[in-house]
Amino acid sequence: MKNTAVTGVAERLKRLPRCHRIAHLRALIGLQPVGCGRRDELSELLRDEISSTSSE
After folding, report:
1. Which domain of life is it from (predicted)?
2. Of 9, 16, 32, 52, whose Cβ has the fewest other Cβ atoms within 10 Å?
3. Closest to 45 (Cα-Cα) out of 34, 18, 35
């Protein structure tokens, strides 16, 4: 992850339950324009979150 803003978002979302993290990431992705680098980074973060095997 390159963008410090996205890194900050990831840190703040860690406090939420997993299902809420996924929902918030989807909402944030929807707010970004198509082709935006931040959208791509948020999508990468969402993929990582969905594929993670740890459940809380």
Report:
1. Bacteria
2. 52
3. 18
Enter the DSSP assignment of 33.
P
How is residue 12 written in tokens?
């703040």
Mean pLDDT for all residues in the chain: 87
Q: How many helices (H) and strands (E) does the chain have?
A: 3, 0
High-pLDDT (> 90) share of the chain, %: 59
CA distance 33 to 37: 9
Q: Which residues contact 18 (CB under 8 A, 6 or more apart)?
A: 49, 52, 55, 56
- All residues at 6 or more sequence positions from 16 whose CB lies less than 8 Å from its CB, including other chains: 24
